[in-house]
Amino acid sequence: MCMPVFFAFYTCQIKDRNMGKEFGMGKLSQTRAPIYEALERFRRDRVVPFDVPGHKHGRGNPELVQLLGERCVSIDVNSMKPLDNLCHPVSVIKEAEELAADAFGASHAFLMVGGTTSAVQTMILACCKKGDKIILPRNVHRSAINAMVLCGAKPVYVNPDVDQRLGISLGMKREDVIQAIEDNPDAVAVFVNNPTYYGICSDLKAIVKAAHAKGMKVLADEAHGTHFYFGKDLPVSAMEAGADIASVSMHKSGGSLTQSSFLLTGEGMQPGYVRQIINLTQTTSGSYLLLSSLDISRRNLALRGEESFQRVTALAEYARGEINQIGDYYAFGREMINGDSIYDFDPTKLSIHTLDIGLAGIEVYDILRDEYDIQIEFGDLGNILAYLSIGDRIREVERLVTALADLKRRYKKDKTGMLSQEYISPKVVMTPQDSFYAEKESLPLEQTRGRVCSEFVMCYPPGIPVLAPGEEITDEIIQYIVYAKEKGCSMTGPEDEKIERLNVLRDR
User: Fold this and answer.
1) What is the mean pLDDT of residues 318-345?
2) What class, spelled out in words, does domain 305-411 have in CATH?
3) Cα(156)–Cα(170) distance, rounded to whole angstroms?
């Protein structure tokens, strides 16, 4: 996109849209933010606090007030009659849920204060019990496998397709998912990433159709797909595709505070039961800072989301064009769509392949942060992701482009001997739950070859396990872990914080 056209588009005026919907005898308007409005009334009432939290509107912790501000600390409050209760909402939180369901096109919406990790775990716990099979790609977030550790579900992995040049996992092929459904008619659910961290989407509508034909639920991890519900010319959202339940990271592209998310359900789920599952693990002291940020951010997207994400898409397209002109970098986009394992692509994602300048993505990540004061989302062995959303401006994007050009000039080297493969097909021996709780022993990493792992190993972000409980440790995995550590990836998961030892099953 040429610069004059881009700037004309970028500076377009945004007009509010009232997206009201009938609910029973009343009418809900997307201009409302009931939790925020209740907090403002609470502030005006000057309530004397003899409840928690103990800082008492900040008076007991002046340094906290100095950091966050009086207005923020004064509404860090506990559940009470005028503010409702997250565990059993009957007033303002309930209304906020109804407004969110309306905005996202869902039958019901739940406000989540434990992040999308909590929402993903709820999806699986609400659909699976011990011994149930769930069909899912192996490139899922750790939260999905954590849920299987908790409930005892059995994974049936569908290996995603892999882009050999980029070294990244893609989506699941339609035929592979359909085959897994045919081979496992007793499975209760199919889990889908929509999209992946890199912006890649599977054919969600086809997967939903195939799963529902066999009576299986469809669970969608939309941690990186909030904008699908509000943007134009973006991949299909889970609710639109007919999925039964979806987890949405509102704090990522939606603009709410970190750790705040939505859980959306379709008509096939019982909201009362889902609430019970949420309450098994979610706090009884929901943060009103997080809840109000969800409320306000939902209103913002319902009223201005389409225009906002058109702007984000244009910004990303401009960035891709500029970065690809530098040479040796590859900022990939919709040209990758193949109609199957890359059924669609999220054009707001700015993913950049770095290996051709002789640097791993994590090395570029570190240089940008340490020498250019630019914080990107993550770097893996061959790529970086610069996360663009409603708060980004063109001047920051131009600063990133300039930094990448300068970084290439200063640091480019021969890429011979560098690893690129990000996805390794697992050898599953036991269920995550059985192996996690089994008798185990700790061994040096180099001595674990052929043993069954009883813990997680992953780079975070993106939080996709290299190893999960119940999987066999191979030479390829050991090599990957050693190489990733050498390149500076943030490795997490094992009991040994240095990742020099792994816990393995004692008898396997």
Assistant:
1) 98
2) alpha beta
3) 18
State yes or no: pLDDT of 412 exceeds 80.
yes
pLDDT at 218 over 50: yes
Amino acid in position 348: T
Amino acid found at 143: S
CATH of domain 94-303: 3.40.640.10
Cross-strand partners of 457: 467
> Residue 326 and residue 396: Cα distance in Å, rounded?
17
* Distance (Å, whole) CA 331 – CA 352: 4
Which whole-number Å values give the CA distances from 366 to 43, 328, 370, 495, 499, in the listed order?
43, 19, 6, 25, 20
- DSSP 8-state assignment for residue 270: -
pLDDT at 208 over 50: yes
C-alpha distance from residue 452 to each of 136, 429, 459 (Å): 21, 7, 20
CB distance 427 to 474 below 8 Å: yes
Averaged pLDDT of the chain? 93
Burial class (CB in 10 A: 0-12, 13-18, 19+), 502: buried
Question: Beta-carbon neighbour count of residue 276 at 10 Å?
Answer: 12
Alpha-helical regions (H) of 152-255? 174-183, 204-213, 238-241, 250-253
In CATH, the architecture of 432-505 is: Alpha-Beta Complex (3.90)
Distance CA 462, CA 492 (A): 11
pLDDT of 421 over the 80 cut: no
Per-residue pLDDT tens for 96-119? Answer: 999 999 999 999 999 999 999 999
What whole-number distance in Å separates Cα of residue 227 and Cα of residue 109? 16
DSSP H or E run through 367: helix 361-372
Instruction: Name which residue leads in pLDDT, 2 or 397.
Output: 397
**CA dist 26 → 21, 22, 23, 29, 95 (Å):** 9, 6, 6, 10, 11
Type of residue found at 444:
P
pLDDT (mean) for 223-238: 96
The answer to whether 137 and 159 have CB atoms below 8 angstroms apart is: yes
- Predicted TM-score (pTM) of the model is 0.92
Question: CB-based contacts of 285: which residues, under 8 Å, 6+ apart?
Answer: 52, 78, 79
Predicted confidence (pLDDT) at residue 266 exceeds the cutoff of 50: yes
CA 365, CA 375: separation in Å to the nearest integer? 8
Helix (H/G/I), strand (E/B), else coil: 457 = strand
The CB density around residue 500, as the number of other CB atoms within 10 Å, is: 12
Does residue 160 have a cis bond before it (omega within 30 degrees)?
A: no
In the chain, what are the domain boundaries?
94-303, 305-411, 432-505
Measure the CA–CA gap between 264 and 75, rounded to whole angstroms: 27
Instruction: Please tell me the predicted confidence (pLDDT) of residue 27.
Output: 65
DSSP-derived secondary structure letter, 237: P
Q: Which of 379, 351, 423 is nearest to 139 (CA)?
A: 423
Model confidence over 435-486: pLDDT tens digits?
Answer: 999 999 999 999 999 999 999 999 888 888 999 999 999 999 999 999 999 9
